[in-house]
Design goal:
173 residues, alpha/beta, 44% helix
């Protein structure tokens, strides 16, 4: 006799500052693999964000609206605590480069020590997106560069507007 374990829920966490095509690709692919995918928008205390957590949640919600099994929530605690709270047992992570692999390997071992019941599943970035990072996009936006190849069309106006605000603030200082 087999038991139905219920829907398979995964959690994909990140800062998403800004959400870009690489993130969206992982979300799209993850939504096809898992019954439910919760995107956890978090903070990195070591970085200052371009957008507030509320703005980032709204931007991620905007680009994930076509995926009915994707939900977006803010995170203000450890990722493994958030995964437990959701009732998931899988953390989804995207890998772009070998330096990502090293960082993600360390993080997954730490998460495994903190929560042995939670598994980490990695998706390799498509080659098209493997060079994209939030840091790079913030630099391009701040210097007035073209963003079309890197961010979803729904995100570009917000990113460009925030970069203009920052440039105006720096010019006035």
């Amino acid at each position: 006799m087999s038991t139905n374990p219920g829907p398979v829920i995964a959690v994909y966490t990140g800062v998403f500052d800004p959400v870009h095509l690489g993130h969206l690709d992982v979300i799209r692919r993850g939504s096809k693999i898992f019954d439910r995918l919760v995107v956890g928008v978090g903070i990195n205390p070591e970085k200052s964000s371009l957008f507030s957590i509320e703005e980032r949640v709204q931007l991620v919600q905007r680009v994930t609206s076509p995926f009915p099994n994707v939900e977006v929530r803010p995170i203000s605690r450890l990722a493994v605590q958030f995964v437990r709270e959701i009732g998931a047992r899988i953390m989804l992570r995207g890998l772009r480069t070998t330096s990502d692999m090293e960082k993600e390997f360390t993080m997954s071992l730490t998460n495994l020590a903190l929560a042995p019941e939670i598994e980490t599943v990695f998706l390799m970035a498509k080659e098209t997106y493997s060079h994209i990072s939030g840091r790079l996009l913030r630099q391009i936006a701040n210097l007035g560069g073209e963003l079309e190849k890197f961010v979803p069309p729904e995100i570009r106006p917000a990113l460009e507007a925030r970069a203009r605000e920052r440039r105006a603030g720096e010019a006035g200082a």
